[in-house]
Amino acid sequence: MQAIQNKIKALNIEAVVWIAGLIFLALLKPNGSSHLSICPFHNLGFKYCPGCGLGHSISFLFHGDLQRSIECHMLGIPAVIILTHRIITLLKK
Length: 93
Hints:
Layout: H1 2-10, H2 13-27, H3 40-43, H4 54-62, H5 66-72, H6 76-92
Helix pairs in contact: 2-4, 2-6, 4-5, 4-6
């Protein structure tokens, strides 16, 4: 039992969450007509949100569609680079 607890403590939860998020976006079909939104601005009926489109941008990037990725959100590519750097940094610890 102690060995299992030690492995859980050694597991970096933040790295796991970022990896899971990127895997989810890689598996997501970016051309889907509707999706669940947890954006508070979207759910309150606002037309504009500075972060909306970021998930689609990352998904298009993982599917190799660079142009649509940039069209959805110009910060999609930098976000993937920053998250990848963060994951590597966390896993090195």
